[in-house]
Amino acid sequence: MMDFARFSIEGKTAIVTGAGTGLGQAMAVGLAEAGAQIVGVDYIPMNETDQAVSAMGSQFLGIEANLSTTEPLPGIIEAALKRFETVDILVNNAGIIRRHDSIDFTEKDWDDVMNLNLKTVFFFSQAVAKQFLAQATPGKIINIASMLSFQGGIRVPSYTASKSGVMGLTRLLACEWAKHRINVNAIAPGYMATNNTEALRADTARSAEILGRIPAGRWGLPEDLRGPVIFLASAASDYVNGYTIAVDGGWLSR
User: Would you give the DSSP letter of residue 66?
Assistant: First the structure.
């Protein structure tokens, strides 16, 4: 008989970056629905996320921080511990994208994307893993990869490089930290209806081309990530290490 209690994260503390909108907001609310208290991190106010998490009967701590550098990381963990005493789950969701032909791509657009999408992911994972070890507790780290962790794409060189790096880093950290009962995995969203894809969805021809390749026949919704993130954050995934789950409506199967 299935033990659905293994999917509960009741009383756990989850840090979710980029929690103000879109995918991060949906995952924060999903984790709250499964019983976690949420530390949301974003560079914008997170009032809507706070309300949605509270509606699930959970607690929310919002921290406004710019994750383009690693400077805020110790303070975020300190604030989480002060409010909730432990940290149990990290969702590295915050990210940006810059679109230009590679022939004209600037060093600034390269560095801005790589700093947030990859450098901060590593050092936040490192900081949280140290906290797991200090607590002597198991921990879950969930990175947000992309279809472009598997494919090249066009006009997004730094994004493709960063998301390919996220998948590789997920594997490496899993290899090093599994022995400490720290699970490191990733979710690769497909084409989702978020701010990052607004320009694509507004381009009628490009949108039709994308939808024509998605077997599910629709853009993904932020809510589509709730189930996968709960699974990876819970004891149900205790023997899943270093894997990237595609949530893409079948895109990669075509």
Answer: -
Banded model confidence at residue 196, pLDDT cuts 50, 70, 90 = confident
How many domains is the chain built from?
1
- 131: CATH: 3.40.50.720
Distance CA 94, CA 18 (A): 4
CA distance 96 to 117: 7
Name the residues annotated as catalytic: 159
| Greatest pairwise CA separation for the chain in angstroms | 58
- CA dihedral defined by 189, 27, 195, 215, rounded to 10 degrees? 30
**CA 113 to CA 94: how far, in whole Å?**
11
d(CA 197, CA 158): 16
Query: Is 1 inside any structural domain?
Result: no
> What residues are paired with 220 via a beta bridge?
192
**pLDDT digit string (tens) for 108-120?**
999 999 999 999 9
Which residues lie closer than 8 Å to 70 by C-beta, 6 or more apart?
119, 120, 123, 124
Q: Which two structure tokens, joined as six digits, stand for 59?
A: 């607690």
Q: Taking the complete model, does pTM exceed 0.90, yes or no?
A: yes
- Structure tokens, 198: 């607004």
Q: Any bridge partners for residue 27, and if so which?
A: none
Residue range(s) defining the domain that contains residue 31: 9-247
Report in angstroms the alpha-carbon separations of 37 from 60, 116, 202. Answer: 6, 24, 36
Angle, alpha carbons 214-218-219 (nearest 5°): 95
In a domain, 253, yes or no: no
